[in-house]
Amino acid sequence: MQRIPVTRDGRRGSEVLLIDSADVVKIEMYRDRDYLIHTKTQQFYLDTSFDSLEEWLFEDGFRMLDSTNIVNMNHVKEYDSRKGVVYLGDRDSKETKTASAARIQKEHIEKVLQMLQISNDAVPEGQSDFDPVAYISSLVSENEHSQFLRSYATIQAVAAKKKAEEKILHMAYHDSLTDLPNRLLFQKKLGQQFEKVKESGKLLAVIFIDLDRFKIVNDTLGHYVGDELLKYVAAKLKAYIGPEDMVCRFSGDEFILLLSDFVHIDEVKNFAKGLSDLFNEPFLYLEQELYIAASTGISIYPYDGQDADTLIKNADTAMYRAKEKGGNTFQMYFREMNHRSLEQLNLENQLRKALDKNEITLFYQPLVDLQTGSITGMEALVRWKHPQGMISPADFIPLAEETGLILPIGNWVLRESCIQNKKWQDAGYPDLTVSVNISVNQFHQPGFVKYVQQTLTETGLDPHRLCLEITENVAMKNVTYIMDTMNKLKQMGVQISIDDFGTGYSSLSYLKRFDVDTLKIDQSFIRELSGDEDNMAIVTALIAMSKQLKIKTLAEGVETQDQLNFLIEQGCDGIQGFIFSRPVPPEQFEELMRSQHHLSKVL
What we know:
This protein is α+β, with helices and mostly antiparallel strands. The chain has three domains: 3-156, CATH 2.40.50.1020; 174-334, 2-Layer Sandwich (Alpha-Beta Plaits); 346-597, TIM Barrel (Alpha-Beta Barrel). It starts with a strand and ends with a helix.
């Protein structure tokens, strides 16, 4: 409570008294910057400046009603809007003091309107000629016990509190990066939609979207670029959906859509097909073009689930099936997927323990020089000796990549291959080069070059006796980073091979700039050589191009005499395939070296 300094006669040097601001009903200006202080029964003269007074009284409910009156709103008992008079006590009492309210400041009106809006009692709809002063006055006139106005401070405090509550509520239900609804709001909206579609007989679709290869963007260009890409995708999706639909950011690079108000599943399929068209144009960042693709899974209410959790889980399951198909596509959910998902989950749990249980092992397939017919190297191929039988790499490598297990497995393969090759060298066998497949996640892991260097140092293997194979699709993504990494590896003496060449969409201009040693022709071209003139032309062109670029060629999957003869005629440098040897365990590969297995035996 403020204490106000006053005198009884207003003269300089008179005794100064202190009165409580709560006892003051009105402050009245009678001369320029001279004020009378009124209580209910007395009056005094202010003993300080108006500026100071305003600071003192700001929190105590004092407001200027006109140019000569500052009124304590806590003492307002009634307001006569017709006369423009405020009564500071009982209207019928002769002692009650009054104040003119003919002039009310615009700022005051705005503050009061804020208060009314906060109270959900805002301007009535459809009243374009609404008079705020009259409206405020009528509110007070209707209730003789109500105060005329509230303190500005009260209004501001309530407004700030309301704004804070709204912000907290928004944060609870929205993603901070994209400002899209989050999974909590999505589930809430989905629950509300159930009742509506039950009455209308229409369908709902939950569409689960996961960006393909988003981790590569984060790992190579940084999280800032990844965040900008996510905001770009969010804006695209938000613009694509209808007014009754919803898109939310589920987590990471996952988005989920709620599609409502449709009657046939084909409508959902057409919607999903259009998703791929959203990202035909690349996302640009500092002249870097990033092309986006996504895997999409769809579940339908009521067929694929009766509650939010089930629908979301089934859409997620369908999305993973789309990933298994290579991504950049959509997949409708069907019940058999759950059984497969359970199998995949069990397989993942077992794969996590496979390294510790020594179930992961390596087989080696010889690489043969076509000019000498001798073994010049071998490709290390990972195998999983599961207790229930050997599991194909085609089944567990994609799972390892998806779960991140490819990093520990891939690093183990690299180290084990170097150890084994060094053992054979120390045992007196010919110096051979071991080729190791490097996954995209492995190649982009931080410190990969350093890990290769450390592995070679610790195992003692000559760097020239290690060849790292990367697929064509890996090599053509983020070319600047790939070239820099390749150059560092080449400086160490490590050889580089491009695997599965011809199956992607590579640029020959980039291939010219890559300092690679070997180009491996994919087995899909070799398999169809016999009688297929197109494949024969492709293989011939690849071999001729490689010779011009001074890159060796090695054909994969050679199985027949006709295939071998054709490759020899075209001048291919080397082969690997069943015609010479299948992938074999280390002890059998050692026997091939011991017997000096030669291509002449095949011919």
